[in-house]
Amino acid sequence: MNLHRLLAARAEAGRPVRVGLIGAGKFGSMFLAQARLVPGFHIMGLADLDPARARAALAATGWPAEQAEAGTFAAAFESGGTHITDDAEELIAADGLDVVIEATGHPRAGVRHARLCVSHGRHLVMVNVEADALCGPLLAREAEAAGLVYSLAYGDQPALICEMVDWARACGFPVTAAGKGTKYLPEYHGSTPDTVWGYYGLTPERATAGGMNPQMFNSFLDGTKSAIEMAAVANATGLTPPPDGLAFPPVGVDDLAQALRPAVEGGVLHGKGQVEVVSCLERDGGAVARDLRWGVYVVFEAPSDYAARCFSEYGLVTDETGRYTAMYKPFHLIGLELGISVASAALRGEATGAATGFRGDAVAVAKRDLAPGEMLDGEGGYTVWGRLMPAAGSLATAALPIGLAQGVKVTRAVAKGQVLSAADVILDEADDGVRARLDMIAAFAKAAPQAAE
User: Which end of the chain has fewer CB atoms at under 10 Å, N or C?
Assistant: First the structure.
């Protein structure tokens, strides 16, 4: 509640929080749009493989042209300007930098940047949830050991879910379920970049005109992004993944408490304390009433008859027993809210969500029969989709994480619907992502899964 005051004090003292942003895409641009309006922030550096895109992002979000004229990071530090580079490591190493935002969306790059932040003593806000799903538990542990903050990104759904879970627990309410909403039908698991726009009700021409990337949008549709994000939430909160993967039940906000309770009590959950994603579509394709497509939720339980009576007295929507209820946030503002994580890391030394154990994994499942010699094309592509899996099961079967399922060759036939294993592909152990994943397996294999406190 005091972040604005703390930022204002830093601005008044002439000691703004100096921020480096890696990745000038949509999420990064949304952050830039708000960061220039917040006293106490100085965007000291911006790294993107295409420096022209970085300059365009600053211009599109209202920054004055002279902001990007700082010739070096030292000049940017002194002048309050922003130095633009195509070298992320140069940005991370820049003297005076406080917080790095990793917004590339590429899991291997995210892992490399996270470990560089530890080497150079920088707090990290990991927008790149793909990297977090790949080996966030390891990255968070390494940052903590170095006295640094590793944080999920506020404004993105995982961090908002973590906040709601923390709120419920801090109030003394046992959490039954937490998650988000999305658009889902079972057939979407087979969607490819060629079919995605039809499911969204768009023509390819309209999508292209809007600058929409079909593979990225397909990752939201085919279930991969949901698996990645719920793995991050499970690892940060201690909530468990469903043993058979996300079920995507069609549930509106008024039915959250009734539906998202254990099956033995009439709900759809395998058990209490679970992550789940709800669909805005009925299985026949009809719309769910008062859906939560853009939002997040937490379902919690009254720990006493007195608390249950208070639920009723204050108008909460409950299940038929009156003991389960839900809170939800219908929307999220993505990068427009990201400053909360940056300020929290720099001024409080706190993450807005971070892995505390290895409990959930997002693994690669074949979208069609795969033959030896084929190349996997990763998240949202033609060959695989990501499914949520308990970490213990993933480790036991050496499942291939979706974050490593891009640009690798298949070595043996894999049937449609089968979870790929690491033995089904050729992995380069010199690769940053592969090496970090192996380090995480070594660190967490005996401990997974860890129970919530």
Answer: N
Domain covering 3-155+335-348, topology: Rossmann fold (3.40.50)
Q: Where are the domains of the chain?
A: 3-155+335-348, 158-184+223-332, 360-444
Beta strand segments in 267-404, E: 274-279, 296-301, 324-329, 360-366, 375-377, 384-390
Residue 386's φ and ψ, nearest 5 degrees, are -100, 130
- Of 353, 349, 347, 350, which is closest to residue 5 (Cα–Cα)? 347
φ, ψ (nearest 5 deg) of residue 366: -70, 125
Helix (H, G, I), strand (E, B) or coil at 150: strand
Q: Pairing between strand 150-152 and 175-182?
A: unpaired
By CB atoms closer than 10 A (0-12, 13-18, 19+), residue 93 is: middle
Q: How far is it, in rounded angstroms, from Cα 212 to Cα 385?
A: 20
Pairing of strands 360-366, 384-390: antiparallel
- Nearest to 17, CA basis, from 136, 100, 106: 100
DSSP 52-69: HHHHHHHHHTT--GGGGG
Strand partners, 83: 45
Between the two ends of the chain, the Cα-to-Cα distance in Å is 25
Q: Is 199 helix (H, G, I), strand (E, B) or coil?
A: helix
Encoded tokens for 440: 């995480």
Dist. CA 232–CA 209, nearest whole Å: 33
Residue that the structure tokens 């789940």 belong to: 276
Closest by CA to 106, choosing from 43, 25, 20, is: 25
The size of the chain, in residues, is 453
Please name which of 36, 37, 38, 44 lies closest in space to residue 19, comparing C-alpha atoms.
44
Residue showing tokens 């079972």: 186
Q: What is the pLDDT of residues 306-344, one digit of tens each?
A: 999 999 999 999 999 999 999 999 999 999 999 999 999
Question: Model pTM greater than 0.70?
Answer: yes
Owner of token pair 């036939």: 413
Say if residues 399 and 389 touch (Cβ distance below 8 Å). yes
| Rounded distance between C-alpha atoms, residue 67 and residue 75, angstroms | 12
Q: What is the pLDDT of residues 275-317, one digit of tens each?
A: 999 999 999 999 999 999 999 999 999 999 999 999 999 999 9
